[in-house]
Amino acid sequence: MSDEPTAPSTVRGAYGAMTTGDPAAWSRPSQKLWRMRMVELAIVGGVAAIVAVIAAASGHAVALAVSMACVVAVVALLVAFTRRRYRAWGYLEREEDLLVRRGVLIQRLSVVPYGRMQLVEVTAGVMERLFGLSTVKLHTAAARSDARIPGLEPDEAARLRDRLAALGEAKAAGL
Amino acid sequence: MTPLVRGGRALAALAAFLAFTSVQRQHGQGTHIIVDVAVAAAVFVLGVVHWLVTRWAFDGETLHVETGLLRRDTKKVPVARIQAVDVVQPLVAKFLDVAELKIRVAGSGKEERLAYLHHDRALALRASLLAAHHGLDPATPEPPERPIATVPGGRLAWSVALTGSTAFLIAILIGLGVVFTVSEKAGFALVTAAFVYLLGLVTGVWRRFNSQYGFTIAQAPDGIRVRRGLLGSVAETIPVRRVQAIRQIEPVLWRPLGWRHLQVDLAGVGKRDAAGGSGSVTKTLLPVGAPEVVAAVRAMVVDDRGVVLTAPPARSRWKAPLSYHNLAAGHDRDVVVAVTGRLRRVTCWVPLEKVQSVRRVQGPLQRALRVATVHVDVAGRRVDASFKDRDVDEADRLVDELATLSRAARSRTIPGATTAP
What we know:
The complex is a heterodimer.
Chain A: H1 11-19, H2 31-56, H3 61-88, E1 90-93, E2 97-102, E3 107-113, E4 119-123, H4 126-131, E5 134-139, E6 148-152, H5 154-170
Antiparallel strand pairs in A: 1-2, 2-3, 4-5, 5-6
Helix pairs in contact in A: 2-3
Chain B: H1 2-24, H2 29-53, E1 55-58, E2 62-67, E3 73-78, E4 82-89, H3 91-96, E5 98-105, E6 112-118, H4 119-133, E7 146-150, H5 153-161, H6 164-182, H7 184-212, E8 216-220, E9 223-228, E10 233-238, E11 243-250, E12 260-267, E13 280-289, H8 291-301, E14 328-331, E15 335-340, E16 345-351, E17 357-362, H9 364-369, E18 371-377, E19 385-391, H10 392-413
Antiparallel strand pairs in B: 1-2, 2-3, 4-5, 4-10, 5-6, 7-8, 8-9, 9-10, 11-12, 11-16, 12-13, 14-15, 15-16, 17-18, 18-19
């Protein structure tokens, strides 16, 4: 937190840093998140393959081949999409607010001032717990503030949570 | 006073239910009436018991209310946490000259109710509570208010008639009439089948007229005083500091007449707001009004003279072909204004100091057109103000500007970091 280069102060600059892949600017979820997503996809793909086999077992070999090919194609598309989605997730801690960027088809950027953060939630689903990851969610008084960062390592999640909570309290403003 | 009024509402509902069932049933009415009367008597007795065990006291700093027979429920409301005190008089209470006090408390879900004091006593208690809240001697009389606008009954009636649900109701009634002339049996069957639905529609229309009748707005030091109600009257205060957004709605049927409807979103815990968000309460600021009246009322809450509205670039028409005509938005140092909607035109004003977060959203079509939407969020779930489909450079610039300006606006209103109660 002390010798990091100053975060870009404009959204243009922040986006530019994202596209040029400047590592010092945006922070990303952990690599393990990608592995977790692959495991999820593998499970889904396996189940779909089994279902396809069972469904086509009564028919000809051609039907079986076609259904398997469909399953493979869909899983491949999902893998590519999930990869892009994983790469698109990022967060940037600025002086007065936090930027969270996510989404592939619908790209979203949230700017949440520290003073408006009412609740910082750290949760972990079943898969996340298996991989030792957690999700940090920010809540403001607005129900539509949707800043969340999945797949964070435990110490990064704890650091983020503590920093956000401290900054939120320091810069708090009333409703 | 309390038990009769509490029983009153139940009795009215019971009478309506009795009328409905007697229409339907042919035999065995005797036993049913006995059961219903027994239920009404039970409610009455419960009301008496509740009245016997309710006690209240105000010592200048805290309002104590004790209720409950089996489980004593003691509520202490410190005056510092009072946000608003409303005086409500349901119909039966009006006959008996009693009123109920509804106190909105900071940080609590529901409103605290003190049921059925004498009307004058209720007003006096309200004045003392508000005086004590502002740090004055509780005996200070209520500051005078400056009346701003009144909604005439005729205009309200017309405005209720010219809404979608009324038009729907009229269409249904006409359809029923047609069916009746064709075949009486079929008509009766339809009526009984759709009775509940029709009742719901009629109740909705009536409730709207009843609750907004005689709408009077006055300006007072502690906020905007609103008095309204036909059978039951409500006197409420809308604190201007807690307004998160103000919305002006022009439904399509009102446009030829130039009438507008104003709503405000107030910070506070809304009804059953579960996942995230502090919630907000939406109150009607003006049910219907001509443009000048609407502008005068709006000026009490927000000052938008410095705002210049701009339209999105022409190519956004591809994304929003129907609503492009009305799309406009703008901001100055203090307030964001956004206009959306084609048939039902909605203009939303958001004070920058109330902004919670700023979001930039870009869908695939928007990416192809090189436009993006910038949303400005406020407390609660209602629709926010947004700069729809702006050029990407403008959208990026807006995100920065709005974030900076909202921070500046926040520090202007609240010098030093304090959390409001």
